[in-house]
C-alpha cells in the first residue's frame, strides 16, 4: 500500500497540443442576435435619430428640454418612486420569503409561492381597477372604513407606491425564495459552533451569500417600477409626475403638439438612468459574488 | 489543548413519536476518541447534537468535566464540530473560514490570520488560504472544516460522519490524518459513523447504539472478539449463523461441543454466531461440504461453503486459494473457543447476507 502525503495541491496540468478548430457553434446564437437587433437595436436607432434632430437639423435641444421643467420633475419623480418601491419591496419581500421558508406549514409555503407567482405578474389597467374599486375615492374598503373622511387618497405618490409594491413584493418573494432555500442549515450550525449568535451568522454568512440575489432583486424591482405605465396612467393620470406618463403625453400630443422628439429624448434619458443603475449594480454584484467564481 | 471528560446521563429525546434516544448513558474519558456506531435511526447523531447543543434532550444531562452544559446555548459550548459535508461558509475564503470563530470573538486580524495559517499547516494545506470552498476537493474541504473546528482550541471535538461523502481512498487517508491529529492534540473526540471499519480502525473505544440505547461499549478488539450481544455480533463484522443444540452452557454445532458465552436463550434450538475467520476449512473429498465461491482479497480469501441447506462464510489465508477452489469438497470445523448463541429463527436466517465483494 502506498502511504500518501496529505498535501495534494498540484497545479492543474497545463493544456497543450493543437489549437482548437474554429467552431461554428456561434451560429446557434443568430436567432437571439436577430431578436436583440430587432427589439433593442432598431428602437435605439430610432430614439437616437429622433432625439438629436429638431426641425430637420442635428440638435441637442430635445435632450435639453427633456432635462428641465416638468420633464425633469417627471424623470426625478419616476426615479424616486422606483427607488422607494425597489428598496421597500426588496426588504418586505425578503422578510416575507424568509418567514415562508422557515415556516413549518408546507401548505402556507405553497399558497404564498403560488400567490406570489400570480401577483408578480398582475399589472396594468386590471391592477389599477382592482385598487380603485377597493381603496379609490369610492372604493369598497374606503367607504366601509370611512377612510375618505380621514384624508385618505390613493391618487398620489404614496398611493402609487403602494400599488406598485403590490406586485413588486411578490416578485421579490419569487426571486429570493430559491436563494433562501439554498442557505444550508449546516452553515448556521457551523457558525453557532464557532461561537456566532444569530446576528453574527446573518452578518458574516447569510446576508453575504444572499447579496447577489438581493441586488438582482432590487434592480429588477427598480426596472419594473421605472418602466410601468398603464397602472399609473389609469390611476393617477397626470397628477403624479412620471416620465412614462410624460412620454405618452408628448407622443400623443394631448398636451403639447410637436414634442414627439422630446418624448424620444425622455426615452433616451430612461435608458441612461437604467445604464447608471447597472453601472452601480454590476460592480457591486461582481464584488458580492466573487466567491462564486 | 487538553481533552475534557464528557458524560451523557440518561439522555432521552423524542421526535414526534419516534424515540431517538432512550436513556443513553455514556462516559467519554479525557483525550479519548470514541466512535458512536449503529444503524440509521439508532440515535448516534442525536446524541452528538445534544453534546454540540443543537438538540435539547427531553430528559437527562450532558456534563463536561462535571459541569452540566445541557442548557448552555450551542454558541457558548467548548466543542468544535465537523459536519457531514458542505459546512464551509461559501462566501469566505479558506483562511476566513478557519478564522471565523476568532473573528466572531473579535480577535485582531493579524493574530487570527496567523492562527488560521498555523492550522492550515497542521492539516497539511498551508497554501490554500486564499481559495474559496468550491475550489477545493471534498477531502480538502473536510480537512479545512477540521481546522476550523480546532481553531478555538475546544476541549471536545465532535465529528458527524465527516468522511461519509468522500470516496474510499480519500476516506482511508483522512481517517488516519484525523486520528494522528487527535492523538497529537489529546482532544476528547466523539466520532459518529455507521461504517464499522471506520469505527474499529480509528477509535479507542466503540459504543454501539441500538434504538437509542447503548448496546455495548468496548475497545475495538473486544467488541469484535467478544461482542456482548447478538446484535453487536452481527452489526460489527461478518457473522455466520449456524444451527446448534444447546445443553446448559454448552452448544453442539457441526458435531463439536463448544462453551457458550453471554446470554443463554431458554430454547435448546439455537443459532451459533461464528466469525468467518473462526471457520476452519480443509480439503476432504469424502466430505459433503463444498466450496461455492472463492473471493481472493490478497492476504486472505473469503469462501462461501455449502453444507446441506446451510451456507457459511470462511476466511482462509490467501495462499490457500488455489487448493480451495470452487467445487472442492471440504471438511468444516470451528475454532475451539466460546461462542455466542441466539434463539433459533428459520433456516433462511442461517445464510449470511452476501457481501458485495463475494463473487
TrEMBL record, chain A:
Query: Which residues are listed as membrane-spanning?
Result: 26-50, 70-100, 112-135, 155-180, 213-242, 262-284
Signal peptide, first to last residue: none
Per its UniProt record, what CDD domains does this chain match? Answer: TM_PBP2 (cd06261)
Every copy of the ABC transmembrane type-1 domain together lies at: 75-281
Its ancestry begins with: Bacteria, Bacillati, Actinomycetota, Actinomycetes, Streptosporangiales
Q: Region labeled Disordered — which residues?
A: 1-22
Q: Which Gene3D superfamilies match?
A: MetI-like
What name has this protein been given in UniProt? Answer: ABC transporter permease
Which organism does this record belong to? Planotetraspora silvatica
TrEMBL record, chain B:
Keyword Nucleotide-binding tagged: yes
In its keyword annotation, does this UniProt entry include Transport? yes
Looking up Pfam families in the UniProt record yields: ABC_tran (PF00005), TOBE_2 (PF08402)
Using the UniProt record, name the top-level EC class of this enzyme in a single word.
Answer: translocase
Q: Which UniProt keywords apply?
A: ATP-binding, Nucleotide-binding, Transport
Q: List the PROSITE patterns.
A: ABC_TRANSPORTER_1, ABC_TRANSPORTER_2
Q: What is its EC number?
A: 7.6.2.9
InterPro entries, alphabetically?
A: AAA+_ATPase, ABC_SmlMolc_Importer, ABC_transporter-like_ATP-bd, ABC_transporter-like_CS, Mo/tungstate-bd_C_term_dom, P-loop_NTPase, Transp-assoc_OB_typ2
Q: Boundaries of each ABC transporter domain copy?
A: 6-236
A single Gene Ontology molecular function, please? ABC-type quaternary ammonium compound transporting activity
- Tell me what this protein is called: ABC-type quaternary amine transporter
Source organism of the structure: Planotetraspora silvatica
What is the taxonomic lineage of the source species?
Bacteria, Bacillati, Actinomycetota, Actinomycetes, Streptosporangiales
Amino acid at each position: 500500500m502506498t502511504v500518501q502525503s496529505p498535501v495534494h495541491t498540484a497545479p492543474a496540468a497545463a493544456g497543450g497540443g493543437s489549437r482548437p478548430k474554429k467552431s461554428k457553434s456561434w451560429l446557434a446564437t443568430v436567432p437571439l442576435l436577430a431578436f436583440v437587433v430587432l427589439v433593442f437595436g432598431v428602437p435605439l436607432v430610432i430614439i437616437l435619430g429622433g432625439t438629436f434632430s429638431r426641425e430637420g437639423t442635428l440638435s441637442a435641444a430635445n435632450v435639453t428640454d427633456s432635462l428641465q421643467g416638468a420633464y425633469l420633475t417627471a424623470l426625478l419623480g419616476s426615479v424616486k418612486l422606483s427607488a422607494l418601491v425597489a428598496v421597500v419591496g426588496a426588504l418586505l419581500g425578503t422578510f416575507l420569503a424568509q418567514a415562508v421558508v422557515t415556516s413549518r406549514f408546507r401548505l402556507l409555503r405553497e399558497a404564498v409561492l403560488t400567490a406570489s407567482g400570480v401577483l408578480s405578474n398582475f399589472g396594468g389597467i386590471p391592477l389599477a381597477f382592482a385598487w380603485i374599486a377597493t381603496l379609490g375615492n369610492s372604493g369598497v374598503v374606503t367607504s366601509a372604513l370611512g377612510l375618505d373622511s380621514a384624508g385618505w387618497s390613493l391618487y398620489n405618490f404614496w398611493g402609487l407606491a403602494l400599488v406598485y409594491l403590490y406586485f413588486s413584493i411578490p416578485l421579490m418573494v419569487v426571486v429570493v425564495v430559491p436563494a433562501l432555500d439554498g442557505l444550508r442549515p449546516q452553515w448556521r450550525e457551523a457558525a453557532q459552533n464557532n461561537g456566532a449568535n444569530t446576528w453574527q451568522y446573518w452578518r458574516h454568512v447569510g446576508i453575504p451569500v444572499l447579496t447577489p440575489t438581493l441586488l438582482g432583486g432590487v434592480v429588477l424591482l427598480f426596472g419594473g417600477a421605472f418602466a410601468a405605465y398603464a397602472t399609473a396612467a389609469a390611476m393617477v393620470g397626470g397628477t403624479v409626475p412620471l416620465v412614462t406618463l410624460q412620454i405618452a403625453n408628448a407622443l400623443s400630443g394631448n398636451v403639447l403638439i410637436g414634442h414627439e422628439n422630446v418624448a424620444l429624448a425622455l426615452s433616451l434619458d430612461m435608458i441612461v438612468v437604467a445604464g447608471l443603475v447597472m453601472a452601480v449594480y454590476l460592480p457591486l454584484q461582481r464584488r458580492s459574488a466573487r466567491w462564486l467564481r | 489543548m487538553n481533552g475534557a471528560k464528557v458524560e451523557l446521563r440518561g439522555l432521552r429525546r423524542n421526535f414526534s413519536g419516534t424515540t431517538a434516544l432512550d436513556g443513553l448513558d455514556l462516559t467519554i474519558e479525557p483525550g479519548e476518541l470514541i466512535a458512536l456506531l449503529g444503524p440509521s435511526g439508532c440515535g448516534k447523531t442525536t446524541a452528538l447534537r445534544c453534546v454540540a447543543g443543537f438538540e435539547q434532550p427531553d430528559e437527562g444531562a450532558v456534563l463536561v468535566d462535571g459541569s452540566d452544559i445541557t442548557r448552555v446555548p450551542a454558541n457558548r459550548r467548548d466543542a468544535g464540530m465537523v459536519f457531514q459535508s458542505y459546512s464551509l461558509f461559501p462566501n469566505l475564503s479558506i483562511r476566513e473560514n478557519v478564522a471565523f470563530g476568532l473573528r466572531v470573538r473579535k480577535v485582531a486580524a493579524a493574530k487570527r490570520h496567523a492562527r488560521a495559517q498555523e492550522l492550515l499547516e497542521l492539516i497539511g494545506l498551508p497554501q490554500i488560504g486564499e481559495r474559496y470552498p468550491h475550489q477545493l476537493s471534498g477531502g480538502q474541504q473536510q480537512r479545512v472544516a477540521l481546522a476550523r473546528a480546532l481553531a478555538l482550541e475546544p476541549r471536545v471535538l465532535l465529528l458527524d460522519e465527516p468522511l461519509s461523502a468522500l470516496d474510499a481512498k480519500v476516506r482511508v487517508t483522512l481517517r488516519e490524518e484525523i486520528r494522528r491529529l487527535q492523538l497529537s492534540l489529546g482532544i476528547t473526540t466523539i466520532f459518529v459513523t455507521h461504517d464499522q471499519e471506520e469505527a474499529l480502525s480509528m477509535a479507542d473505544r466503540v459504543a454501539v447504539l441500538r434504538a437509542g440505547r447503548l448496546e455495548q461499549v468496548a475497545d475495538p478488539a473486544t467488541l469484535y472478539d467478544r461482542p456482548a450481544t447478538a446484535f453487536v455480533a452481527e452489526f460489527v463484522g461478518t457473522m455466520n449463523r449456524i444451527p446448534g443444540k444447546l445443553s446448559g452452557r454448552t452448544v453442539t454445532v457441526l458435531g463439536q461441543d463448544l462453551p457458550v458465552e453471554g446470554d443463554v436463550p431458554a430454547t435448546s434450538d439455537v443459532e451459533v454466531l461464528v466469525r468467518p475467520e473462526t471457520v476452519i476449512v480443509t480439503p476432504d473429498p469424502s466430505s459433503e461440504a463444498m466450496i461455492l465461491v472463492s473471493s481472493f482479497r490478497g492476504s486472505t480469501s473469503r469462501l462461501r461453503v455449502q453444507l446441506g441447506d446451510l451456507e457459511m462464510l470462511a476466511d482462509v489465508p490467501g495462499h490457500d486459494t488455489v487448493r480451495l477452489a470452487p467445487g472442492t469438497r471440504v471438511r468444516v470445523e470451528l475454532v475451539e473457543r466460546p461462542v455466542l448463541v441466539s434463539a433459533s429463527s428459520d433456516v433462511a436466517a442461517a445464510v449470511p447476507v452476501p457481501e458485495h465483494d463475494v463473487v
